[in-house]
Structures are given as structure tokens and as C-alpha cells.
């Protein structure tokens, strides 16, 4: 393949020209004819050459140039709720992503996923080839239902809908329940993508100030009375970006206020498996009457094997199934669900989580110590997870610092992208796992020096 | 695990009770302690038992019942554009799906996918664990760009966005270009899910009568003048449900009319690889100026490994990337893209397609012959693909027949679900690959006898 590509690049072979016969090329290269057949087949598969049965192989008439430049993330983008995602997803491997929302790949249970991939190679044809049913893999839904039951949330597997991501789960719920112009409550600060997603739905975002034990209950009630929102989206456990945990009292008050105003709540439980011990859940208290639980496996298992879920009332699930068929055809990838199921039911997964929680706990302490020396102070010390929501030194603007950091090949997550009221310009969210990179503090310190103050 | 489950089912162990110690249970069962550790870990992973470090394993307080009934597809649903999808996706393995839109799993390139899965087990941690970039796998986009170039459509890999399905690709385009109340042109008949998807977007659907060489060009122009639609969605090659192919003259006239009325066209190329030889493509003629090409690998590679794509103008791709991040976070599963890339670049894939086309050609002739004997006649004989769009005997209503067929455990695809004007009540779409099942004709004949005439 390299030899033929070289001839194309050096114009020794032009568009439409015939390639050497398999026999002749095998003799020239000193390889077996079957090796040449395979190379020609692969070049044909990628469209570089074409086969004309009975005649031989020819260079495609429009053989494309071989060096194709790929775009880099643009640096001139506005620092808005999409900024962190785009910058960190599209960053090169030389970029340090202290602001990103995932663990370094080496921290994930890759050995279990490799075992799952080897198991997949032996799966039934049906698993490898077919769409699967509309709710997604029944074994995975049964496993999730058993886990939820162990947490006090009883539901039938038919009340679970698998999706291709946690975000897609929320998107489907928004499609079902929201109309343009509706109001939606979020925490201030909240996960930036809630805002990006809600903008797509053309709804009005109302922020409720967030405290170390959840949304401020009095302001929450006031917001319900004043704005009559249709939906509230939140993380109860290990809140993004603060790492805070909902207290039982706040949970109770939120649910009562929701009942009084007929509010539906989406509880995004994506960080649940990173908790050292269980904390209150709105879905469990409410029993899925007005709370919808969503989650995914991107933070603890793999963000590459994409799979999320919705747990909700049966009538809502039925409607969400139709919406997912209409907009994605069918449920999530059965192959992805099989990989997730195999990994979750692998005996090693629980041990992986135990070790991960210990590792994160150590990384959190170390990151806090290092940041403290730069005058950056955590708003609270979370019980688990990988975020530290920190206050910057007086006068330092987070968006300015994030722009300066890009020049140092450092992606940060400035506070205002999380804040609907844009009142978090003095805050920054750090990923303590990514902070364990030895370059982190030096680069961050340089970026601080480079930022306009 | 079976032993413990048996104790739970027989109430020999109740919620909160302690399990036998690992050592004791190993002795009782005559297995090694490590076997018991693995069984307990797996039971803990699924939530049936919990581990209390230093104390042992306990039955979860809310151990769920072990036999959990799963819902069947409901039979009382309206025969609407979602009907075929729901009935065929959720059908049991004993149901014959003559109306479904995919090949039997045994017809797919499963050996190549198994090789790809074994390759995945050796992939980099980054491929297994990370989100990947926002446009999706660069190697796969490069391969697609080379294939498209070979078909006369030059584009940069950055003009390609991978999605989690072809349907999701169209959904993102609708989100970008449509507003509620807009008009959208489709073929009459067209793929039923175009209608289901467009209903989600709350647009008005305008059907253009379809001929054996594409949409009727005069009526197409008239519809543009009368309704000023924003978008036209079509399959040019091996049109769903008719199997027809766009002629060069029609393609040219459609594009001219589109230019005159500033219409954007979505060309869904999902059946392209099933064509015996290339046919005209709007995207290639137009050069991606007002045509957007979408596709997926569900029909020829795997519907379980979900991956689709959009090829479009750079500015549209840039906007679609943001929309996909906001609504799904990131691109499609990098694991899925890796499996697709490995399979497409496997030298065996081209041979698989050649063999598949021959097999389909034979199945098509045989199915047409069998149907003919029941008085069911193809509207045209397609050049490729797996659909036969057939006219039923006089007086037989397709929806009635489809309902009667459900009682025979047969899922059919009645004409009106494809027809925006609901003028195809005398037509039925058959899947010739599924028709090769020996039970097909006997069951269909029984259903015809059972249908009210």
C-alpha cells in the first residue's frame, strides 16, 4: 500500500492509469500474490483505486491528495457555554485539559473494556448486526434496575430507556416536555452544557443560586412562584461544577416546592458511581413520579463507548421511545450496550471504582494544595468526584485567564460558562485528575502571569 | 451465582441478611475461594448483594424480584409512520419481519466485525476511553472523503461530521435549518421515518409524486412555487420504498428548480453500497453547495455499531458540530467509528458487498416470483437493494393486511405509512432478504385470507 501511495504522491501513477498486475507487482516486491491482493483490496476499499473485473485495478479518476490537513479548534471563539467542550474535545494531544469534564484515559477500566471487546468478538450475529429493541439492551436495563432497587428506587426494566448519551437523554426529555418560550430552572452555577442544550430548545433559562447543600430552598420556591418553570435540571450528587452534595433537608424542601407548582425535575446522576457513600436522591425520594433520573457511563467506564439512560414514568418512557425512534432510529448501539453490560458485570468493576475513588481523593487533596499556593482556593472540598470549584485571586478574570491559558496549550473552564447570571467571573473549575500532570502548575502559573489583570 | 439466586428466590436468604463467608461457601460448593469472590463481586455489581468492608456480603435491602416481565410491542397502535419501526424493532425472535428495513443478521459481514472487535481489544487507551473529537474519527472521515472523491465528490475531511446514525444526521440538519411551520418536500411515497422525524420538528410535509426515475420534475417545480419549502429530503439511489433510481435528466431538473427557489436538499445515501453500479447523485452534481449528503453503515455493515455522517458546506458543518455537542455531547462513539473504520478498510469488505449484491439480486427475483403467485406485483424491478414496492390484489387494504399479519407473527410495511397523501393503501413494501425465509409465503397467504376485504 505504501509503495502504491508513493507512486501516486510522486506522480509515477496518475488518475485512471492501470496498476501493475497482481502477479507482476508481487514479483517486483518479493511478496506473495495474496499479499498484493489484500493491499489492492484495501486501497480499493478506501477509494484510492478501483477494480474493473476482468481487466485489473486502476487509479481512481479523482484520487485525492494524500496529505489532508485537519482543522484545529478555533481560538477566536466566544467564551460561551460551548467553549469548554469545543476547546477540550478538539484539543491536540499536546494540550493539557485542566478544565475538561473527564478522567485521563489511563484512569479508566480499560482492561475490563478490552475483555468486553474480546467477548464481543464472540457474540451472536444478532448482537453484532441488528438494531436491537427500542428501549435498548434488556440485560443492561435489568442490571440497572437491580442497582437502582439497591438504592431504594424500584422500577421495571421497561421504565428504562437506553440512549446514546446522558446528554441525548436530557435532549429527548426536553423535546417531550418543553415548548419554545418555556422557562427552565437550573442551578447557578450549573453544568455549562445544560445551558447550551436549553438554548437549542429556545427556552428561557432561570438560575437559582447554589449553596454547598444544593439550591437555595427559599430562592428556589420564589423562582417557582415568579417564573412557573416547566422543568428543573440538576445534579444531586457531586454537583457539576461545585462538587457539592444535596442535603436531605434541601431535597425534601425542593420536592415539596416542585409538587406545589407541578414542576418536573431531571436529576442527572452521571457522577453517582464516584461517591464514597450514597447521598440523598430526588428520584428515590419521589419514586419517579415527577422526577426523571438520567445518567451515563462516560465518567467511570468509558466516554468512547457511548451509552446513557432515562428512568421515568412508563407513559413518559413510551413517548420518549417514539421520539428516539423518530430522531435517531432505534435505541443506542447494541454493541455499545453489550460492552457496557460486560464491563459493569465484570467482577473487577467494583474494585476499579474503589481504587478510583481513593485515587481521586488523593488527587483532590494534592490539587487543592498546589492551587492554594497560587492563591486559588476551593469553594468547598467535595466528598468525591473530580471537580474543584475554585475562587481565583482578587482581580483575576477567569475568561481572561482561560484565553491566556490557550497560548500555553492549557484548556481551562472559566466560571462564567457555568453561570446563567454570569456572576462567576472570579471562579474556575479544575479537574483534579488532569491536575496530576506534572506540567500543570507551571503552565497555570505562566498563564496567570500572561493574563491581563 | 445460581445458588445464591436460588436461595433468594426460595426466601432462604432475605433482604439485609448476611451471605455465607467466602471460605465457608467455597467449601460447601466445592469450588475455590476465588470463584466465590468472583460470583459475589458479580452479584454486588448488579446490586443483588452489597459488600460491607471488614464485615462481609449482605443481601441488598431491596433485592428485586428475579423474574421481571418485559413489555411486548403493543398491537393496538395506530398504523402510522412509527408503526413499522416499533413493531419490527420490538418483535420477538419468533416474528418474521417481511416489512423491516434491514438485512437478516446472517447476511452482514460479521466475520469482519469480529476481527474489528478483536482489534479493538488492542486499541490505545485513548480510543477505548475518551470522547474523541467533535467531528468524529479522522481516519474514518479520511476514508469516506477518499471514497467520495472516487465518486466525483471532492471534499475535505473537515466537511464531514460523524453522527450516531443517519437519522440523527437528518435530525441535526432539521434543527439547523428548519423552524416550526416551515414546509418540507418529500417523495410520495418516501421512507416513513422522514415523516415521523419531520413531525417532531413541527413542519408541514409536502409530498411530490414519485416516478420510476425520481420525483416528477414538473410537479416538483410546481410544489416549489406553491409551497416555498425550505428543504427536500430524498434517496437518489435505490429509493426507499420503491427501489427506483434517479435519472440524470431528473437530477438535473431537480437541481435547477432547487437553485431557482433557493431550496436545500438532503440526499440520504444510505443504500449507496448496494448499487450494482453508480447512479447520478445530486451531491456530486451540485458539489455540496445546496445539497447535503448523509449516510450510515446500518444497511451494509452493521445496524448495531451505530454510525452515520453528514457531508456538507463547511459553515453548516461548523454549526452542526455545535448542535451535536449541545444535544449529544461530542460526536459518535469513537469505539463505533473504530469498528466501522476497521471493517471498511478490511480487504474482505468489497468482496462481501459483491457477494451481497449477487445474493440480493437472486433473492429479489425469487421474491417477485413468489409474490406474483399471490397476485402481488412489483411496481418496478429495482437495480439493487432489498426492497420490492408491490401492488396488492384489487380490494385488499395494506393496513388491514398488516394488522391481520401481526396475528400470524408477521410484520409487514403497509403502503400508507410511506405516503404523505395516504394514497398508497393498495401497496406494500417487502424486504426480499427477509422473504427468503421458507415460512414467508405460507404466513403471508394466511394473513391475506384473514384480512377483511
TrEMBL record, chains A, B:
| Organism domain of life | Bacteria
Which molecular-function annotations from GO does this UniProt entry contain?
A: DNA binding; DNA-binding transcription factor activity; pyridoxal phosphate binding; transaminase activity
Indicate the transmembrane segments per the record: none
The record's InterPro entries line, in alphabetical order, gives: Aminotransferase_I/II_large, HTH_trans_reg/aminotransferase, PyrdxlP-dep_Trfase, PyrdxlP-dep_Trfase_major, PyrdxlP-dep_Trfase_small, Tscrpt_reg_HTH_GntR, WH-like_DNA-bd_sf, WH_DNA-bd_sf
Q: Respond yes or no to whether keyword Transferase is given for this record.
A: yes
Query: Where is the HTH gntR-type domain positioned along the sequence?
Result: 1-62
Which CDD domains does this chain map to? AAT_like (cd00609), WHTH_GntR (cd07377)
Signal peptide stretch: none
Q: Which UniProt keywords apply?
A: Aminotransferase, DNA-binding, Pyridoxal phosphate, Transcription, Transcription regulation, Transferase
Record flagged with keyword Transcription: yes
Which Pfam family, any one of them, does this sequence belong to? Aminotran_1_2
State the family named in the UniProt similarity comment for this chain.
Answer: In the C-terminal section; belongs to the class-I pyridoxal-phosphate-dependent aminotransferase family.
- PANTHER family named among the record's database cross-references: HTH-TYPE TRANSCRIPTIONAL REGULATORY PROTEIN GABR (PTHR46577), TRANSCRIPTIONAL REGULATORY PROTEIN (PTHR46577:SF2)
**UniProt protein name:** 8-amino-7-oxononanoate synthase
Native organism:
Enterovirga aerilata
Amino acid at each position: 500500500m505504501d509503495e502504491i501511495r508513493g507512486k501516486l504522491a510522486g506522480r509515477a501513477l496518475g488518475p485512471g492509469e492501470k496498476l501493475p498486475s497482481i502477479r507482476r507487482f508481487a514479483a517486483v516486491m518479493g511478496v506473495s500474490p495474496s499479499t498484493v491482493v489484500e493491499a489492492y483490496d484495501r486501497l480499493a476499499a478506501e477509494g484510492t483505486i478501483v477494480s474493473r473485473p476482468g481487466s485489473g485495478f486502476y487509479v481512481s479518476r479523482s484520487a485525492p491528495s494524500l496529505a489532508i490537513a485537519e482543522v484545529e479548534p478555533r481560538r477566536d471563539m466566544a467564551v460561551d457555554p460551548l467553549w469548554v467542550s469545543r476547546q477540550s474535545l478538539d484539543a491536540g494531544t499536546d494540550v493539557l485539559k485542566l478544565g475538561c469534564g473527564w478522567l485521563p484515559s489511563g484512569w479508566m477500566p480499560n482492561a475490563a473494556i478490552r475483555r468486553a471487546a474480546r467477548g464481543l468478538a464472540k457474540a451472536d450475529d444478532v448482537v453484532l448486526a441488528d438494531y436491537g429493541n427500542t428501549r435498548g439492551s434488556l440485560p443492561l436495563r435489568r442490571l440497572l434496575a437491580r442497582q437502582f432497587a439497591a438504592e431504594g428506587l424500584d422500577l421495571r426494566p421497561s421504565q428504562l430507556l437506553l440512549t446514546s448519551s446522558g446528554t441525548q437523554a436530557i435532549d429527548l426529555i426536553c423535546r417531550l416536555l418543553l415548548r419554545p418560550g418555556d422557562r427552565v430552572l437550573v442551578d447557578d452555577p450549573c453544568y455549562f452544557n445544560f445551558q447550551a442544550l436549553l438554548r437549542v430548545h429556545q427556552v428561557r433559562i432561570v438560575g437559582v443560586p447554589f449553596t454547598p447543600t444544593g439550591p437555595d430552598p427559599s430562592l428556589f420556591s420564589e423562582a417557582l412562584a415568579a417564573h412557573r418553570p416547566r422543568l428543573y435540571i440538576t445534579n444531586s450528587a457531586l454537583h457539576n461544577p461545585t462538587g457539592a452534595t444535596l442535603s436531605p433537608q434541601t431535597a425534601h424542601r425542593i420536592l415539596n416546592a416542585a409538587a406545589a407548582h407541578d414542576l418536573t425535575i431531571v436529576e442527572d446522576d452521571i457522577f453517582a458511581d464516584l461517591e464514597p457513600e450514597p447521598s440523598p436522591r430526588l428520584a428515590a425520594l419521589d419514586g419517579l413520579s415527577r422526577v426523571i433520573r438520567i445518567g451515563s457511563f462516560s465518567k467511570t467506564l468509558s466516554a468512547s463507548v457511548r451509552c446513557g439512560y432515562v428512568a421515568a414514568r412508563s407513559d413518559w418512557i413510551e413517548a420518549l421511545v417514539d421520539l428516539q425512534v423518530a430522531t435517531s432510529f432505534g435505541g443506542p448501539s447494541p454493541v455499545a450496550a453489550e460492552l457496557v453490560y460486560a464491563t459493569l458485570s465484570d467482577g473487577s468493576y467494583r474494585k476499579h471504582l474503589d481504587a478510583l475513588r481513593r485515587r481521586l481523593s488523593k488527587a483532590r487533596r494534592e490539587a487543592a494544595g498546589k492551587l492554594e499556593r497560587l492563591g486559588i482556593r476551593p469553594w468547598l472540598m467535595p466528598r468525591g468526584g473530580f471537580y474543584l470549584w475554585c475562587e481565583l485571586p482578587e482581580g483575576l478574570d477567569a475568561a481572561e485567564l482561560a484565553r491566556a491559558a490557550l497560548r500555553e496549550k492549557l484548556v481551562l473552564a472559566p466560571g462564567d460558562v457555568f453561570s446563567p447570571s454570569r456572576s462567576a467571573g472570579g471562579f474556575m473549575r479544575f479537574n483534579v485528575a488532569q491536575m496530576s500532570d506534572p506540567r500543570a502548575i507551571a503552565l497555570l502559573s505562566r498563564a496567570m502571569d500572561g493574563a491581563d489583570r
